[in-house]
Specification:
alpha/beta; 5-stranded mixed sheet; 5 strands; globular
Length: 180
């Protein structure tokens, strides 16, 4: 499966509003403070990424399939479309400031599958979706998802449950019974 990422100024502005609202409410992004002044103006940009291998890994553990579209944005972080109603498909807003595109896109696709799997019906969804990306480290055989500074203890707990039998069901069940 290939995902085409394109630039759309209206989408970029929407992501900036969402990002700034998050910072205003939380002061940091889970321990990271990222305020930047946009100095790049994009008129037109696009690229295509083959995500077939990533999708196969996630389809297997989440036992579902999703379609994904992508946009390029100028916010400091990439994000997904989980700020509105749950939809069947997912959208990745890919930040031009991203240093490792394949890891970031894999991370965002994980969020999309997690959102569809939990339907956001999980304690503290906004942070929980970040805790669970620790599973990526096992799926890809390396430390591709280091996580945010404020989430390390929670990620370790999720990973211990995951390592027992590689079941997302068990991890979510554990977390719902023991939210942190």
């Amino acid at each position: 499966m290939k995902v085409k990422f394109t630039y759309n100024k209206k989408i970029d502005n929407k992501c900036w509003k969402r990002y700034n609202a998050f910072l205003k409410e939380n002061k940091t992004v889970w321990g990271l403070s990222k305020t930047i002044k946009p100095i790049i103006e994009i008129k037109k940009a696009d690229f295509v990424m083959d995500v077939t291998d990533i999708m196969k890994k996630y389809e297997k553990i989440f036992d579902t399939m999703v379609k994904i579209k992508g946009y390029i944005v100028t916010t400091p972080f990439s994000m997904i479309n989980d700020d509105g109603p749950t939809t069947k498909n997912g959208t990745i807003y890919y930040s031009i400031y991203t240093q490792n595109p394949s890891v970031v896109v894999a991370h965002e696709i994980f969020h999309i599958f997690f959102e569809k799997y939990t339907n956001r019906d999980i304690p503290n969804y906004e942070e929980a979706k970040e805790y669970f990306t620790v599973i990526m480290n096992d799926l890809f055989g390396s430390n591709v998802s280091g996580g945010y500074p404020n989430h390390q203890q929670q990620r370790n707990k999720i990973f211990k449950v995951w390592k027992k039998n590689h079941s997302i069901d068990d991890c979510v069940s554990y977390f719902k019974q023991n939210p942190f």
